[in-house]
Write a structure and sequence with these properties.
Keywords: Membrane, Transmembrane. The chain is an all-beta fold. Helices cover 3% and strands 44% of the residues. A six-stranded antiparallel beta sheet has the order 1-4-5-6-7-8, with no helix packed on it. The protein is elongated and about 85 Å long.
Length: 278
């Protein structure tokens, strides 16, 4: 049943039906029109008195309400300089038994909002550094690439030896759980020294590395590949991952090694630093 309520704040709805719309191929159309700038409402009500209302106003906006509570609203942003040209506000819960297809970008309103899958809160990407175009915030700025590869990473041959590089990440929701992921590259004459990662000066991960752990060094050279620096085989993209609970809304990530050699003899680099929060 379609029930039209003529309230004082809404002027009379003009219902235009019929042959006027038959020029649309294989389609029929119902137009609910009103004077410019005035809202139009369609109310669907069941026998128990529960209702769903679709309201469209003259400012390129609409909302769907259930029993006087907004479930879904749409507003077109006037300022075209905004990142989100179109904004969807979900006040209630939007459910679908079918695939939800989004043609444009899907934005989370703020880092305090969460995504759930089967009642489980999902990790969200908070920050990502791949060093292709930006190394902002890092205490050391040296970058490298190997051979003909266009991939750029922080550090590398003759750059990073026995040092610690740091970056502070700010703006986290309070008491967030944080997952840190990155790849570390080992170059040249490592003979069991340590690489490590720290949060606010506390070691969260460490790994010893030797370029050859076989009895015959020539066997390592035959099986390995030297991509950067000396002829010694290198190890690329060793994965690192660890999780901690942030104390406050910021933390300092530090990555380093205890190498005592010249950085042109043994070195390292990092790439694809990913910060996830939950």
């Amino acid at each position: 049943m379609i029930k039209s309520n003529y309230k004082k704040e809404y002027k009379k709805i003009v219902l235009l039906l019929g042959l006027y719309f038959i020029n649309i191929t294989n389609a029929s159309q119902i137009l609910l029109a009103n004077e410019e700038g005035q809202a139009v409402q369609i109310e669907l009500q069941n026998r128990n008195g529960n209702s769903v209302v679709l309201e469209s106003s003259g400012d390129n906006a609409f909302q769907v309400s259930k029993d006087n509570e907004t479930v879904l609203s749409y507003t077109q942003i006037e300022n075209q300089n905004e990142i989100d040209i179109n904004k969807i506000d979900v006040v209630g819960t939007l459910n679908s038994n079918y695939d939800l297809k989004v043609e444009g970008d899907l934005h989370i309103a703020s880092m305090s909002n969460s995504i759930f899958y089967k009642s489980q809160k999902q990790w969200k990407l908070f920050a990502f550094d791949d060093f292709q175009y930006d190394k902002k915030g890092w205490s050391e700025q040296a970058i490298s690439s190997c051979g003909s590869s266009e991939n750029i990473f922080l550090g590398g041959h003759c750059n990073f030896g026995g040092i610690i590089v740091t970056k502070e990440y700010t703006g986290l929701p309070p008491n967030s759980y944080v997952n840190v992921k990155f790849n570390i590259h080992f170059f040249d004459d490592w003979t069991g020294e340590l690489a490590f990662a720290q949060i606010n000066g506390v070691t969260m991960w460490q790994q010893s590395y030797a370029w050859c752990n076989k009895l015959l060094i020539q066997q390592c050279k035959n099986q390995g590949i030297s991509a950067c620096g000396k002829e010694t085989p290198d190890t690329f993209a060793y994965p690192v991952s660890f999780t901690f609970q942030a104390n406050g809304t910021s933390f300092i990530l530090g990555v380093g090694s205890n190498l005592a050699k010249n950085s042109c003899d043994a070195s390292w680099g990092i790439d694809d630093v990913q910060i996830y929060i939950n």
